[in-house]
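Model it.
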Amino acid sequence: MTDEAIEVFAHAAPRIRRVAVDRPWAWLAAGWRDVTAAPRVSLAYGALIVVITYLLLFLLLQAGVFWLVLPLTAGFFFTAPLLAVGLYETSRRLAAREPVSLARALAAYRRNGTQLSFMGVMLGLLHLGWIRLALLLFAVFFGVGFNPSWETLVIKLMAPSAIPFWIAGSAVGAVLAALVFAISAVSIPMLLDRDVNVFVAVATSFAVVRENWPAMTLWAGLIVAFTLFGVIPFFLGLTVTMPLVGHATWYAYKDLVE
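Modeled.
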């Protein structure tokens, strides 16, 4: 890298703030304020995510591969940061006292669209990688030709013999999820908010997680918990938990990056 390139990168890279370990609770509180400040937009956005999820489930059922629901649901953590772009935009508009609407939220992808697309490709490849690994784990533990009905899948996964599968799957998923979290913790809100490229955004996100690892560990755990609360009631809870975490992520970014 030339001296000029280093200078440009250093100029483009923002400063990172250090925050207290309990700071994620303040982000959640700010996110909830935005949910209540723009309930129609926030809840409609969350409901749209649920509708898209149901459509995907229907397509899997029609294709006879409904068992893929398990790896795809686990992989929701890979795509959720990008799906929440409209929520970040709504929080940005609320802070700037600009009008908000579902149409404006959905149009947010046009802001810095090229770099957001690059980020989407990156997360999409990681999601596909996770699915391939999940298929490999299914083949190793249940047989190469494993393509069961939903009822058979539930029986197999609830059996004591499936414990090694759960351990291996959880370990692999945790490693990939940690990587995705480090990449996307603040990068996508940053791409929406600033005229930067995906490399600067991802590098900033990594630096934020490294410099604030206690707070970011708590934040990652809260994201997992709220996502599970949303998924368990047959995905209906995402109507609320998705907007809450999405808005809170915007405030995390604004708090952590100068």
